[in-house]
Amino acid sequence: MVDIDSRKLRLAMVGGGPGAGIARAHRSAAFMDGEYELVAGAFSSDPAKSKAMAKPLYIDPARAYGSWQEMLETENKLPADKRPDAVSIVTPNHMHYGPAKMALELGFHVIMDKPITVTLEEALDLRETVKKTGRVLALTHPYASCATAKLARDMIKAGHIGKVRKVVVEYPQGWLYRLFEAEKGNKAAAWRTDPKLAGSGSVGDIGTHAANLSETITGLKITSVAADVGTIVEGRLAALARWEGGVRGSVQASQVSTGEGNGLDIRVYGDKAGLHWRHEDLDFLTLIYQDKPAERWHRNTDWANAISPSAARVSRCYAYHPEGYLEEFANVYYNAAMAIRCVEAGRTPGELDLDFPNVEDGIRGLAFVQACLESSRNNSAWTDIIRY
Question: For the whole model, what pTM was predicted?
Answer without folding.
Answer: 0.93
